[in-house]
Amino acid sequence: MQVRVQEEGFDLGAESDAFAAGVEGAGAIVTFTGVVRDADGGGLVAMEIEHYPAMTQKALEAIAAEAKTRWALADVLVIHRYGRLAPGERIMMVATASRHRKHAFEAAEYLMDYLKSRAPFWKKEILSDGQADWVSAKADDETALERW
Amino acid sequence: MDVVYFAWVRERIGVPREQVDTSAATVADLVSELAAREERYAAAFADLSALRVALDQELSDFDAGLAGVREVAFFPPMTGG
Predict the structure, then answer these.
(1) Is B2 within 8 Å of chain A by CB?
(2) Backbone phi and psi for residue A84, each to the nearest 5 degrees, phi listed first
(3) Architecture of domain A2-147
(4) B76 and A122: CB-CB below 8 Å?
(5) A vs B: CB pairs below 8 A
(6) Which residue, of A97, A135, B10, B17, has the fewest CB within 10 Å?
(7) Per-residue pLDDT, A142
(8) Which of residues 61-80 of B touch A (CB under 8 A)?
(9) pLDDT in tens, B41-70
(10) Which residues of A touch B54 (CB under 8 A)?
């Protein structure tokens, strides 16, 4: 299990390859990547991601460890960035490896649902008109946890 | 104890972290004490349903006791991923 909280970007291909190399024998690898998208009304200049340094690493590790107890996973990788990101930049990725795809897919979805509302990150959208808005959590994000 | 704030809670209160001398028994008691201090605190704590709390870096709730707690964090619902 590998969890990394970092400001710098990451190479999706290199991370995926390294992850795959470490789980020889797993028949299924699922990766998910979150990317900075434009604001709903357009005009996004940057996204600033704040986090709670003392809590982030252990919150992510707890979520990843829980996924490993629920599904038969050969390994889990979580990378999540913070700081100022431009539109189109990658924010985060998860990778899961399992013998069969069902476990890898479900675990990846579980990780994403929990990262959304249980990992201490907060996003702020910086717009071209000078406005800056905190992204609010959606009610859907909370209800998404209920299925697990 | 240390009290830390994130996102708009930090902006509204105006500091990221402060030391608070308190004998509050629960998080809710601490919130009442802080909210009574100044308008900026009252504004930040006006709607507790819009806030989350962590005690020593673990998510908790407003009824939780503060005995032995070293760091209390207040922040809006998280938006990771």
Answers:
(1) no
(2) -95, 120
(3) Alpha-Beta Complex (3.90)
(4) yes
(5) 73
(6) B17
(7) 86
(8) 71, 73, 75-80
(9) 999 999 999 999 999 999 999 999 999 999
(10) 52, 55, 120
Domain total for chain B?
1
pTM assigned to the model:
0.95
How many angstroms separate the Cα of B49 from the Cα of each of A19, A119, B60, B61?
A: 40, 18, 13, 11
Where does the pLDDT of residue B21 fall: very low under 50, low under 70, confident under 90, or very high at 90 and above?
very high
The whole-angstrom distance between B81's CA and the closest CA on chain A is 5
Which candidate from A92, A112, A122 shows the least CB-CB separation from B6?
A122
Nearest CA in chain A to B53: A120
Interface confidence, given as ipTM, is: 0.95
Tokens read off for A106: 């479900």
Domain range for residue B11? Answer: 2-75
String of DSSP letters for A60-109: HHHHHHHHHHHS-EEEEEEEEE-EEE-TT-EEEEEEEEESSHHHHHHHHH
DSSP letter for B40, please.
H
Chain segment A15-62, per-residue pLDDT in tens: 999 999 999 889 999 999 999 999 988 999 999 999 999 999 999 999
